[in-house]
Write a structure and sequence with these properties.
Length: 190
């Protein structure tokens, strides 16, 4: 499978106003993790990323997800959830699964690089106050990974642009730096 970076040069992606990295966040229902991740990456860096989210199944947004995102100024109220079949014919550069069910059920997206971020399910708590706190923690964990993801993608690409003047890079180079800075590895293993 070819990485999107094997087929696009860095300057094409990061210096063109029209070419963005196409990212799909996929979770079980598109009612908790994936819409939170989509909204956070859009808010952080819509100049470099075109982001969408979907679920293996499709349910309404969880009220706690709406509430905790509203706490940071992101409105998910009225958002229409998407199921996996709604995005199957779209082209993505990176597909990020956010739960084990999505990782297992994720279909093949041609030319997309598949990444898995595992998050604990906040719905496991019985007490409503504890459940809300788990949703807040989930929001912060997703925000931390999204910030790191965007930083690594943009900085790596920009540094390679200046060092190699628009050369194509083999996949081996990308994978050694791509998702494995020490902080990312520590976060991924939590």
């Amino acid at each position: 499978m070819a990485s999107f970076r094997q087929t696009k040069s860095y300057s094409e992606v990061f210096q063109s106003p029209t070419m963005k990295i196409q990212v799909l966040f996929l979770c079980a229902t598109n009612g908790v993790q994936s819409p939170m991740a989509e909204a956070l990456l859009k808010r952080l860096d819509s100049a470099h990323f075109d982001v969408t989210s979907a679920g293996i199944d499709c349910v309404d947004m969880h009220p706690h997800a709406i509430e905790v995102m509203k706490e940071i100024g992101v409105d998910l109220e009225g958002r229409v959830p998407k199921a996996m079949h709604d995005v199957l014919n779209l082209r993505f550069d990176i597909v990020i699964t956010l739960c084990d069910r999505a990782r297992v059920a994720c279909p093949k997206f041609p030319r997309a690089e598949l990444v898995h971020w595992r998050f604990d399910d906040p719905l496991g708590a019985m007490d409503d106050i504890k459940r809300k706190r788990l949703f807040q923690l989930l929001r912060e964990e997703i925000a931390q990974r999204v910030r790191l993801f965007a930083l690594v993608q943009v900085r790596f690409a920009q540094s390679k642009n200046t060092q190699h003047n628009d050369q194509q890079f083999p996949c081996e180079i990308v994978h050694t730096v791509r998702y494995a800075p020490p902080v990312a590895v520590a976060i991924a293993r939590r």
